[in-house]
Specification:
By secondary structure, this protein is mainly beta. It has 1 helix and 8 strands, in the order H-E-E-E-E-E-E-E-E. The protein has one helix at residues 2-18, and strands at 33-36, 42-49, 52-60, 83-91, 94-102, 107-116, 119-125, 132-139. It has an 8-stranded antiparallel beta barrel with strand order 1-2-3-4-5-6-7-8. It is globular. The protein starts with a helix and ends in a 6-residue tail after the last strand.
Length: 145
């Protein structure tokens, strides 16, 4: 009888603790939503396509064409709607394996992201993460239609 009570108590304690976990591994879609660019001159939407995370421009302070794109056929395209974050996968609190495109330079970099409260920490780099730059995108709490 004591073993049965102990088993029930341990089971209830385990269920109770699961409800209060802070492990982000259980909430990979928490990244989904809208963010200000670091200069607050653009809004970026992070969304899920299949099992990968992407980000695109949904608002620009100054609409412009992608004139720095190395692909001449894409230089006449609008930056608005452009995917700047592509093919990220979630693993243990980090969104990695993706790329970030910088329309200001026309260059694409390897990238990883982490979510820190209301900030999306985005690190673009060449080769290894040590050689790169980190930018912070602030989550937008309300996006008017």
């Amino acid at each position: 009888m004591k073993k049965m009570k102990l088993l029930i108590l341990v089971s209830l304690l385990g269920i109770f603790c699961l409800g209060f976990t802070t492990d982000k591994e259980h909430r990979p879609n928490e990244i989904l939503g809208y963010y200000w660019s670091p200069k607050k001159d653009a809004k970026i939407q992070i969304y899920l396509k299949g099992r990968e995370y992407f980000g695109r421009f949904v608002w620009l302070e100054k609409p412009r064409k992608d004139i720095k794109n190395p692909n001449k056929a894409l230089q006449s395209k609008d930056v608005l709607g452009l995917e700047l974050l592509t093919e990220f996968t979630y693993n243990d609190g980090t969104y990695g394996g993706g790329k970030i495109y910088d329309p200001e330079s026309g260059k694409t970099y390897s990238c990883k992201m982490t979510l820190e409260n209301t900030w999306l920490k985005v690190r673009g780099y060449i080769g290894i993460s040590l050689f790169g730059r980190t930018e912070f995108f602030e989550r937008i709490k309300y996006v008017p239609l």
